[in-house]
Design a protein that fits this description.
Layout lengths: L11 E4 L5 H11 L3 E6 L22 H4 L3 E5 L5 H11 L4 E4 L5 H4 L4 H7 L4 E6 L14 H7 L2 H4 L14 H24 L4 E5 H6 L5 H8 L16 E5 L4 E5 L3 H10 L14 H6 L1 H13 L3 H10 L4 E2 L4 H6 L1 H6 L2 E6 L3 E6 L23 H8 L4 H9 L4
Helix pairs in contact: 1-8
């Protein structure tokens, strides 16, 4: 088998999701070669088609990323004929992704029992706020609610201010990523058993799983993490430091790295002195140590500080924005940002596929689709509907 499109070549995925969590899970699979058929409501499509900042002529710029490499068909899942067409699609698919409120697909006669009966090999990725069971399962949720419930929102921001947003929809994308991971794990089981299963990815649990030792810290010591701005308490030095013309991030909290920082600063003795020479000692004197380092960085231009850090093997860097990323030679060398030929935008730069696989890498094969662009291909070539039947379904508002 050829994996020219990526390591998931040969897998067919039906994406029913809307907004971010379901579609980002589909994006990950599509980026690595899966055929992702995005099912959208006729006429309106996924609301993501309208989200994000727009160009001067009104074209939104989020959709080209989250819908890249996908095919779009329209289908009204509220109508019995639409439900029947979906069951036909599922019978020829490997994975189905959905992120409706639990119970929605069941209401449409498209629940797990029905779909797995049509295709016992089906893997069903269900992304939701609270999961498919439990007392909150049927409550509505968005990523921000999952971020708050999972513990992230409380610890982000300045301690003198209310909890802050991370700045991106991290709860949604984490749940989507865990959903994708679960699907790949389920595929491995299916290779041995021939049967699919449900992947239940809850937003709050995805966030909870990246919260490090937050739970055991409370369980054994009663400690509750608080907002600490740019630092982690007891982890020093690791902070943003002002320079003569800007700012740099320096992370030198490991003993050997801290010793190299001290040498770069011309204060080699600090690296082994009782006040700063150990991890615990630095943590206890975190604020005074940060002040001492910043007195040194403020006296030098950013480029000189970075040069000294690199010379002495100390992790340091700038706080990047989009123009910094595009101009950076490392981004360029690794093609972390790529240019896609898009029918609406011409040359459009966006983040490339990650992670990089040495033998069967993923890639951006095609731009985001127009609404229903692949109706004829999927309903005609895959399901065998002729042009007249497809036209009739369109007149009925089913596709």
């Amino acid at each position: 088998m050829s994996f020219a499109h990526g390591p998931l070549t040969g897998l067919r995925v039906i994406e029913l999701g809307t907004l971010i969590a379901g579609p980002f899970c589909g994006q990950l699979m599509a980026d690595f070669g899966a055929e992702v058929i995005k099912v959208e409501p006729p006429g309106s499509g996924d609301p993501m088609r309208q989200w994000g900042k727009r160009t001067e002529d009104g074209k939104p710029l989020w959709w080209p990323v989250i819908a890249r490499n996908k095919k779009s068909v329209t289908l009204d899942l509220r109508q019995p004929k639409g439900q029947e067409l979906l069951r036909q699609l599922v019978s020829q698919a490997d994975i189905l992704i959905e992120n409706f409120r639990p119970g929605t697909l069941e209401k449409w006669n498209l629940g797990w029992d029905t779909l797995s009966a049509a295709n016992p090999k089906l893997i069903m990725v269900r992304v939701s706020g609270y999961g498919q069971n439990g007392p909150y399962a049927d409550q509505p949720s968005f990523g921000v609610i999952g971020e708050a419930m999972g513990g992230l929102r409380y610890i982000v921001g300045d301690p003198a201010a209310p909890p802050s947003r991370v700045g991106i929809s991290i709860g949604d994308t984490l749940a989507a990523t865990f959903g994708c991971l679960g699907a790949l794990a389920a595929l491995n089981v299916r290779h041995a058993t021939g049967r699919g299963q449900v992947v239940d990815s809850a937003l709050y649990e995805a966030v909870l799983n990246v919260m490090e030792s937050l739970i055991p810290e409370y369980d054994k010591t009663g400690f509750i993490r608080e907002r600490n701005g740019a630092i982690l308490p007891g982890i020093a030095p690791s902070n943003v430091y002002a320079t003569a013309d800007g700012m740099v991030l320096i992370g030198a909290n490991q003993d050997g790295v801290f010793a190299r920082l001290c040498k770069a600063m011309g204060e080699e003795a600090l690296g082994t002195c009782p006040e700063y020479g150990t991890h615990n000692a630095r943590g206890q004197r975190q604020a005074e140590l940060d002040e001492r380092i910043e007195r040194w960085t403020r006296a030098r231009p950013t480029k000189d500080v970075l040069a000294l850090m690199r010379e002495h093997g100390v992790p340091a860097g700038l706080i990047y924005r989009a123009p910094d990323m595009i101009a950076d030679p490392h981004f360029q060398a690794r093609e972390a940002i790529t240019t896609v030929q898009h029918p609406d935008f011409g040359e459009l730069r966006m983040q490339n596929v990650a992670p990089k696989l040495s033998g069967t890498p993923g890639r951006i094969r095609q731009p985001s689709p127009t609404l229903g662009q692949h109706n004829a291909e999927i309903y005609g070539d895959l399901l065998g509907l002729d042009a007249a039947a497809l036209a009739a379904l369109g007149q009925q508002g089913i596709v």
